[in-house]
Design brief:
Layout lengths: L24 H4 L8 H5 L12 H12 L8 H18 L13 E2 L2 H34 L7 H8 L7 H24 L16 E2 L1 H8 L6 H21 L3 H13 L6 H8 L7 H8 L10 H29 L6 H13 L3 H10 L6 H24 L16 H6 L39 H6 L40
Parallel strand pairs: 1-2
Helix pairs in contact: 3-5, 3-7, 4-9, 5-7, 5-10, 5-11, 7-15, 9-13, 10-13, 13-16
């Protein structure tokens, strides 16, 4: 399904909150009674860095996060690093993809925003550019119609060709900047890790404050929740790092969808006589009154299918390998998995992101089907054969294949990949290892630190001195949050 990007259009009737300010301009400009709209907009028209005013977007998002955000503590930094090391140890037996090689960082919410902003620019700019172009062309066509008021028609006759291109770039930069800032601010307040939205946004990181809020009411120890989310983050990072074509594939699908965005010129003509230039609320209502053609073009439908299938395959693979790694070592692995799935099904961060910023409404049902497909592939081809399918996009199943995994495995999937393992061979099971923490049991029986100590043993079997502390470290605290919410002096490194 599709819907207008950047908050354009009327309410979907889905029960989502609607404050009558789809672009955030009401608050930005002081509301409907804040004075002359154009006088206030003039202050924001100096942006010339692209279709989205990213300075404004960052300012709006940061302002939204000021109240609920807090710095990351030294203890949380250590806890996240420890959980990342143990997660990699548990993932090694259940996937052929090696570890990413970098410990996850602990980020504040503003740190997550700063650390992922470069990737958001790459994802959102193509959509905003197409919207700006479509609206400029539709304005020119719509305002040349016969149904215009005489004064407007006379004014239009005195303008040269394509008079709206420059104006739309300036106005669009403000509108899109405000809306993107609103969306990213809301997302940063909820997201739990760098990869939770399903696409590679930057280096590995967890958000302790959000994880703590997420764990409330789950009746699961916070340490276990953190470790489960560390497993998911580490699995995502392995996939994005060792499948070099995957990032471009996801971003290209979004851009291909954006190229099909259209604006109804007749809606422009209808909107001209329906708004008061001094009233931001009426301007927003007019802009949202059916400007965008909601019937997806064939090219958009194909792009949406590619994106939806790719995201489903990524999330399904992560679900499978995390289940395998957590089985037998995390007492609450099953309820945590179902909690994460419900979070997606009810509109988690990934679904909100693509719906608000790109206009795509994803179907969480496909994620469960993809996990079932990867389970069948693991049973028939083994771990190495399964992971070898990521070598090229042509080897992966398509959307229709998710409906019948057995048929795909026995048909097209039977010859895919290059590392087929016989069923029942070593490494073919989908059940997690007993692991360094011992067999399944209660939380009290699980030794969370045994795995970390195992990493620090010398070849002669002696434990290193720096593994003497309960967390396999020397007990010294790590550095506090840097200016970007990370201990990296250069800030986060975009993927």
């Amino acid at each position: 399904m599709t819907r207008p990007p950047f908050g354009f259009g009327p309410s979907s009737g889905s029960g989502e909150p609607d404050d009558g300010d789809p672009f955030g301009l009401g608050k930005l400009l002081g509301g409907a009674g804040g004075g002359d709209l154009f006088a206030q907009l003039q202050k924001l028209m100096s942006w010339s860095g692209g279709p989205v005013n990213w300075d404004l977007a960052e300012e709006v998002a940061m302002a939204a996060l000021q109240e609920g955000d807090r710095p990351v503590t030294v203890e949380e930094t250590r806890q996240v690093a420890d959980a990342g090391r143990l997660a990699d140890l548990w993932l090694d037996p259940v996937t052929a993809l090696p570890a990413a090689g970098r410990e996850p960082q602990a980020w504040s919410r503003t740190g997550w925003l700063a650390g992922t902003l470069a990737s958001w620019k790459q994802l959102v700019d193509p959509v905003a550019a197409q919207v700006t172009s479509a609206m400029g062309g539709a304005l020119e066509q719509g305002l040349s119609g016969e149904g215009l008021p005489p004064e407007v028609a006379g004014m239009m006759q005195g303008l040269g060709p394509n008079p709206f291109a420059g104006v739309m770039k300036q106005v669009g930069g403000v509108v899109f900047g405000a809306q993107v800032g609103q969306a990213l601010g809301a997302l940063a307040a909820e997201v739990l890790s760098t990869t939770e939205v399903g696409i590679p946004l930057g280096r590995s990181a967890l958000l302790p404050a959000s994880i703590e809020a997420f764990a409330e009411g789950l009746e699961v120890p916070l340490d276990e929740v953190r470790l489960y989310l560390s497993l998911r983050e580490a699995a995502h990072q392995r996939l994005f790092l060792h499948v070099p074509w995957l990032r471009a594939h996801l971003y290209d699908a979004v851009e291909a969808y954006a190229r099909g965005i259209e604006v109804d010129p007749t809606a422009i003509e209808r909107a001209v006589g329906s708004f008061d230039p001094t009233d931001p609320a009426s301007v927003q209502e007019a802009l949202g009154s059916g400007l965008f053609e909601l019937d997806a073009t064939p090219a958009q439908t194909a792009a949406l299918g590619r994106l939806e299938t790719a995201l489903a395959l990524v999330e399904g693979w992560v679900d499978l390998v995390v289940d395998a790694a957590a089985s037998g070592v995390l007492p609450h692995a099953v309820p945590l998995r179902e909690t994460v799935r419900r979070r997606r099904a009810t509109g988690g961060p990934a679904e909100q992101t693509f719906a608000t910023l790109v206009g795509l409404q994803l179907r969480p049902r496909r994620l469960r089907e993809a996990a079932e497909l990867w389970e069948v592939v693991t049973q028939t081809r083994g771990i190495e054969g399964r992971d070898a399918l990521w070598e090229h996009p042509d080897l992966l199943p398509g959307s229709s294949d998710l409906d019948d995994p057995q048929a795909w495995v026995q048909g097209a999937g039977a010859s895919g990949g290059s590392h087929t393992a016989a069923p029942g061979a070593a490494g073919t099971t989908s059940v997690g290892p007993a692991g360094p923490a011992g067999p399944a049991g209660s939380a009290e029986q699980t030794d969370w630190d045994a795995g970390l100590r195992a990493l620090d043993k010398d070849l002669d079997g002696e434990l290193d001195e720096d593994a003497a502390s309960p967390y396999g470290l020397d007990g010294e605290s790590g550095p506090e949050d840097g200016p970007h919410g990370t201990d990296d002096p250069d800030g986060p490194v975009p993927a």
